[in-house]
Inverse folding.
């Protein structure tokens, strides 16, 4: 059947493209915050912190836009699911941006101190998390619920690494009180990564909802 | 869609199958205006004390379908209906049915309020008077019907004034009171709020929620938001390639508006039907 809601479809497409743009900004922020830590690059960490304002502004604009579409177009069924999902996704992405800022701030503090240990598991954890963020954006673009479910399953790998890092850092603290400050900062940093992976799962649930109209728990 | 399928769809979300009471059961109904078939193989199981909405584009046969339920089509020469419409198990399409009694059991509210050019009181008393009820009974039923439609407080001091002086929304509620006065079991509503302003529309919708505790309601509406707001079940109808109306999908309103199974339903409710 012919499409008769050209303007509405255009608005939805623009909203979707805004969500993907925001996702790309957050993906970049996460990658750069980790690079700022590993490369001990304070300038990059400060850039990540400053650019979060752009993420927040885009979040505000997309929320406003979604609200306007709901108020003026009275969407139902798949259209309503799309807008509600996008609203939730941008909220999750905004929080992921905040976690990237958390990592960048941790990097700034750690970069001024001697390195506690070589970073091995943290970059591995970040690698999985970053790829999850990248791939979930692909699943959003394709509205691919199978892919979303598969991505959410990888949250377990992140959790395993998080617990391993936790145990190791607590060991450092026990070993020498002088380690406590750096280990505590690294713990918070690891927690930021772990939460990003959790939020990827939340977005995966949105993709399933978009497709099926059912609210599911994937974690 | 078969009747058995519809039953399953209707039964699943809210009620145990054993508790479902089907008040009006249209089975494989065909309808003809002369040689032209307006309705093809339409089936619909209407649950008692629920609101069932018929939606679909103009010309899809929803009003035709509704009017078959109390044989209003008899008033149009050259029309013919086949299939079965069971009201509590009795086929209303049967030639030996008492049509006057049927229309008492299955009342109707039309798109435009059509009060008689009589007093408010006489409008409501009209049906009971024809049925030969006593003055005392009529007086009681007039008050009860006007109370049921929320009109009593507004008109109790001017019952002998002309009904034509009431506002559009009040006239529509008066017509509803007139339908209720003869103690129907089913109320058919053909776009009852399409000529009303938003406030009067909400009044009618609120009234429907009250009335469904005692009556079975079938409503035809072009307003999909209204269908989503007020109905428990929704049937989506569409004209087929031979221009005859068909029931495309029927189920709980929540499913029809959130997770329709048929892509044609989704196209229609999301406004992509062209």
């Amino acid at each position: 059947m012919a499409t008769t809601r050209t303007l509405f479809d255009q608005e939805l497409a623009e909203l979707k493209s805004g969500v993907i743009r925001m996702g790309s900004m957050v993906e970049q922020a996460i990658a750069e915050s980790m690079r700022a830590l590993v490369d001990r690059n304070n300038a990059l960490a400060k850039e990540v912190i400053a650019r979060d304002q752009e993420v927040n502004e885009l979040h505000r604009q997309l929320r406003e836009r979604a609200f306007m579409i709901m108020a003026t177009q009275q969407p139902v069924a798949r259209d309503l699911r799309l807008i509600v999902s996008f609203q939730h996704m941008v909220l999750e992405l905004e929080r992921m941006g905040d976690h990237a800022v958390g990592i960048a701030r941790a990097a700034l503090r750690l970069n001024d101190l001697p390195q506690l240990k070589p970073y091995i598991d943290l970059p591995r954890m970040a690698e999985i998390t970053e790829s999850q963020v990248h791939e979930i954006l692909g699943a959003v673009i394709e509205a691919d619920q199978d892919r979303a479910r598969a991505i959410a399953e990888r949250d377990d790998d992140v959790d395993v690494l998080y617990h391993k890092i936790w145990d190791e850092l607590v060991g450092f603290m026990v070993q020498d009180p002088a380690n406590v400050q750096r280990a505590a900062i690294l713990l918070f940093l690891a927690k930021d990564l772990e939460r990003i992976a959790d939020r990827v799962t939340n977005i995966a649930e949105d993709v399933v909802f978009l497709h099926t109209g059912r609210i599911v728990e994937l974690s | 869609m078969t009747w058995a399928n519809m039953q399953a769809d209707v039964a699943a979300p809210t009620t145990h199958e054993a508790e479902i009471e089907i008040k009006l059961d249209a089975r494989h109904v065909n309808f003809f205006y002369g040689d032209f078939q307006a309705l093809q193989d339409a089936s619909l199981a209407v649950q008692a004390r629920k609101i069932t909405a018929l939606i679909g584009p103009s010309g899809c046969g929803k009003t035709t379908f509704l009017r078959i339920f109390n044989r209003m089509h008899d008033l149009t020469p050259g029309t013919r209906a086949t299939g079965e419409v069971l009201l509590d198990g009795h086929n209303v399409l049967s030639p030996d049915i008492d049509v006057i009694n049927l229309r008492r059991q299955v009342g109707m509210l039309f798109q435009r309020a059509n009060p008689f050019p009589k007093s408010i009181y006489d409008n409501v008393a009209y049906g009971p008077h024809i049925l030969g009820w006593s003055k005392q009974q009529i007086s009681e039923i007039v008050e009860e019907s006007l109370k049921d439609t929320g009109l009593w407080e507004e008109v109790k001091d001017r019952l002998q004034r002309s009904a034509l002086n009431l506002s559009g929304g009040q006239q529509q509620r008066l017509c509803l009171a007139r339908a209720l006065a003869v103690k129907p079991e089913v109320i058919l509503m053909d776009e009852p709020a399409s000529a009303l302003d938003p406030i009067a529309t909400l009044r009618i919708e609120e009234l429907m929620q009250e009335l469904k505790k005692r009556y079975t309601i079938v409503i035809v509406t072009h307003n999909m938001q209204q269908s989503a707001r007020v109905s428990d079940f929704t049937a989506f109808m569409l004209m087929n390639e031979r221009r005859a109306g068909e029931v495309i999908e029927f189920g709980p309103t929540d499913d029809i508006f959130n997770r329709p199974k048929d892509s044609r339903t989704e196209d229609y409710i999301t406004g992509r039907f062209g």
Summary: Chain B touches chain A at residues 224-225, 228, 257-260, 264, 266-267, 269-274 (CB under 8 Å).
